[in-house]
Design a protein that fits this description.
single chain, about 220 residues, alpha/beta, six-stranded mixed sheet, 6 strands, disordered N terminus, disordered C terminus
Length: about 220
Amino acid sequence: MDPSPPAELQAAIPRSISREDMVQLPIRRYEGKVCLVATPADLEEAQDDFRQEGVAGFDTETRPAFKKGEVHLPCLVQAATARAVYLFQLRRVEVIPVLAALLSDPRTVKAGVSLKDDLRALKQVFPFEEKNMLDLGMVARSAGFGQTGVRNLAGILLGFRIPKGTKTSNWAARELSAAQIAYAATDAWACRELYLRFQSLGPLRAPAVAAGRAL
């Protein structure tokens, strides 16, 4: 695999964005269909969608810890396809087989940021063998980016700003607020959009994708 980015990426795309430039960007949120998976029909819809999908944006949310030594496990998983974003509350044990199947499906790229940490934490919730996972932060670093978080990459590569006001809210709540749902869906959608943007620029040629299958 040749990790070096093409000349177009080297010449035309900045490797970082300042706070001043970031606040000038328009705010974007995911505006498509969001499915908060809660019924057998929702599960079937998600399964059918995943079977058709070549790349899914992937993210998790965890209840924030405010005390020293306090640690929580993920309580929400988000997966974005071309058609919808699916939100899976892990308190619903019936969603786990669908998530395990997605994570272990070698046909579908699961693209996200800091996936190693997410996967390690998820394995404390349910067992799975991950395949075809692609960490966009690693792709960005290999292309010379100094900022590799979802929000910075969205600003640099997608030209918009993702709000982060609900990040430290209670993701373990039984009922998620509209703001939480919008925040969670936007993060997964942005990961998929970043994958497609990187792919259009060249760093995600087929050999590079294959290299991301296990983190």
